[in-house]
Design a protein that fits this description.
- The structure is a homodimer.
- Chain A is of the alpha/beta class.
- Chain A contains twelve helices and eight strands.
- An eight-stranded parallel beta sheet of chain A has the order 1-8-7-6-5-4-3-2.
- In chain A, α4 packs parallel to α6.
- The longest helix of chain A has 16 residues.
- Chain A starts with 5 loop residues before the first strand and ends in a 10-residue tail after the last helix.
- At the A-B interface, α8, α9, α10 and α12 of A face α8, α9, α10 and α12 of B.
Chain lengths: 306, 306
């Protein structure tokens, strides 16, 4: 039996938030069902943000409620603030993920708040969640941890500082996000190690984009450092706001192919995963669906780890 | 100063041999000149194979002779047999690379000879080259070292056996080729280590394809094991004969971006490298030019290692 690696599908959130058209709720749910049927059991189904800002996410509450009917699904929702966390809790999400920009410039541009003010928001969410009846996992994401389109280089010491502040605020898990895809494997290793030294196993997850073609190599670098949870999007949905035409999230199909080929057990069936692209395509017919394994076909040498 | 890594451009050989149209000799030379101007100093400019089999390579002698006029260029030519090696020598190539299929089925399908018969051909080339006045480097490639579209899995022990036989035949350098792109990083590491144990530093080079999207991650795996020479093709030219639509060689631009970002010194200027795509496009207007860095644009955080 291979060692377990968790692949969290973020397509319904990160993949859709910049899409030109809006995927209908039914289509989102059908897509999520197809993903679960393929063996993906953790899905970021949407975000609780103001519908005026991201209309693609206006129905996240409905998607979460529909997701609760799907056996075996752990529902992750992105929330930018306490109000979003409250909405996510009320809808029934199992995990809320709060983004905190490590880059001060990115933080101000996106949330009108500095990085440490956003950490304070995370602390408020922690306190509010602790006062509720139902237990919800609280994750925080160090966003722009490997570079920023506004500030350029992001110092490793600042990633460590924000991660430490998040651990101190009581989050359950921390993820590092290469939001714009500037990261390289040496940097991933170095930053992951530095953050692990500070917060230990609270560093759980990497969120990588394939903007420069290094996404899968960056995942490998994280894997080498002991990371066992990765975000990815079916068909590499997502794009990059600063680079039109650039690739989006790392491709779930290619990531699963690599992990299983290397002997890691993802619990995911690659054929069924590829079949789930059809549900995505039906819901978002104009989106370009990326993926090398799909283009080439699963090779005859492929064997699942489990 | 970063550690040196050599990127050998194989586009003019591996990228063109399956192209639908034939690139004119002048266009090949203009492309090669643009690559050299970007800082690439080792280029596989073509192969000496029967023109009836691969008409795209009929002018390789002319290309080699033109290449001799370009200062600082080390000219590599692929040769399948002694006759090809003799033609490469006469044209003036600095390095000849002889492919040897590790997969017996692939070897017979491509050369009508078994793997060890092809090693005997390498030995004959060694003897003939040793008797010539001019010194030419003799490399041999363990082709289908990480999987085969005909035989499927290729045992590691067989890669080691063929590499050992090639070392015994007196080759100067050995390369391992993931010809069909089935390899994964764990396998790359394991096979590279096993071959290194047998032939030491004679294992110089990896030749990787991006068929399944793992090409750059596989390069990282090789890098981790001490490999410092990689084949790649500008714009990922090349494709895969068994998988129409699949990606070809790993993309030189993306590979250089990764290496330089990680602190390795390739000697290559990324802007000029990207500019060389124009010469490729002029010579082969129908070819699809791949590459993530080009699509997204070189990020503001990019700094050359040197």
């Amino acid at each position: 039996m291979g060692e377990r690696v968790t692949v969290t599908e973020v397509g319904p959130r990160d993949g859709l938030q910049m899409a030109k058209s809006i995927m209908p709720t039914d289509a989102k749910v059908a897509w999520i069902k197809a993903l679960v049927a393929a063996g993906i059991h953790e899905i970021e189904v949407g975000s609780f943000v103001p519908p005026k800002l991201i209309p693609q996410m206006a129905d996240t509450g409905d998607v979460v409620r529909a997701g609760l009917e799907i056996p075996g699904l752990r529902i992750v929702a992105l929330v930018p603030n306490l109000k979003g966390a409250q909405r996510a809790y009320e809808a029934g999400a199992h995990v809320v993920t709060v983004p905190v920009s490590v880059s001060e410039g990115h933080s101000r541009a996106n949330t009108n708040k500095g990085s440490l003010d956003q950490v304070a928001e995370v602390r408020a969410i922690r306190e509010w969640l602790d006062a509720q009846e139902r237990k919800v996992k609280l994750d925080a994401g160090c966003v722009t941890a490997f570079g920023c389109s506004i500030e350029g280089n992001v110092p490793e010491s600042r990633v460590v500082m924000i991660a430490a502040a998040l651990a101190d605020a009581g989050v359950d898990g921390i993820l590092l996000a290469d939001t714009v895809g500037y990261g390289n494997p040496a940097q991933i290793r170095s930053v992951v190690r530095a953050v692990q030294r500070e917060v230990g196993e609270k560093l759980e997850r990497l969120h990588l984009h394939d903007t420069m073609g290094l996404g899968i190599a960056n995942a490998l670098a994280g894997l080498d450092e002991g990371i066992r949870c990765f975000d990815s999007a079916l068909a590499g949905l997502g794009g990059c706001p600063f680079a039109p035409g650039a690739s989006g999230n790392i491709v779930t199909e290619d990531l699963v192919f690599m992990l299983e080929s290397m002997g890691f057990d993802t619990g995911i069936d690659l054929d069924r995963l590829i079949a789930a692209r059809e549900a995505l395509h039906r819901g978002l017919p104009d989106a370009e669906l990326l993926g090398n394994v799909v283009k080439a076909g699963i090779p005859r040498t492929y064997r699942r780890a489990a």
